[in-house]
Amino acid sequence: METTEVIAKDGSVLIGRKYSPSEAVHAVVLMPAAMGVKQQFYAPFAEFLCEHGFAVLSFDYRGMGESLPPQFTHSLRGFDADISDWAELDYNAALLAARAWHADVPLLVIGHSLGGQLAGLLPDNHLIDGMLTVGSGTGYWRHNAPPTKRLVWLLWYFLVPFYTSICGYFPGKKLRKVGNLPKGVIYQWSRWCKDPRYFVDEKGDALPTYHQQFTAPILSMSFTDDEMMGRRNIDGLHDYFSHAPVERRYIQPQDIQAKRVGHFGFFRTEFRHSLWQQALQWLKNQEKQQGKPHPSAKPN
């Protein structure tokens, strides 16, 4: 693994990690993170893919993880960013960087939760040859799984507006909710999660997206014991990709001889011989079916 810089269109510097196979590269995989999750969480799965011939690029969104400027280490007050910045600037820049890194092999995306949500907001998502989503759905609170639905209304209608107005950012780490998030991010996320359409602007109008130009195959892997995403969340997100072939696997833990998977469990090494193998086989199939060079793209 080597650390790398990804430069967004507005000049912001993101820190990423490159995982390079020791032999021939079959495909390049971009691995965007879930909300509040640092890229290091995905390192074991990235290393697993690398062992099987996939070059992997992960990154932290601006204001998160290794992409957090030192002056904001103790407080995100004054840090200017929203989720649209994460998608259109950060995620899209990482996509172009992955494409340029290995321009002659298929480009695949593995999006966990938010990482799958934002794929439809990328201006250059037409470059993607296949996407695997893991526990990815809209965050509309009335469709959340019962464990989350019982409490999340308190988050959106009380905790977020109260603590964010006082602190200038969402102090999720102290509250043990998601993690510290920039004010623009938490306010936009709150707005989305309170609307059944999810992708809405400040006026409540539908947000312009790039779902219609996304035509690559998608595999959705979700789990019956996900404590956050309900089935309607999962289906609601993937319905947006109306021009893409979508395969939906709604997996019960007992089907893989597991007691629990949940929202984050897929990436635990205990699933190396079950869920990871399912994902690997699908990714290999995309590599074989695509197997064509993409027009070279240079990162902004």
Automatic annotation (TrEMBL):
One of its GO terms (molecular function) is hydrolase activity. The chain crosses the membrane at residues 151-170. Keywords: Hydrolase, Membrane, Transmembrane, Transmembrane helix. InterPro entries: AB_hydrolase_fold, Hydrolase_4, UCP037442_abhydr. Residues 26-152 form the Serine aminopeptidase S33 domain. Pfam families: Hydrolase_4. This is Alpha/beta fold hydrolase. It comes from Undibacterium nitidum.
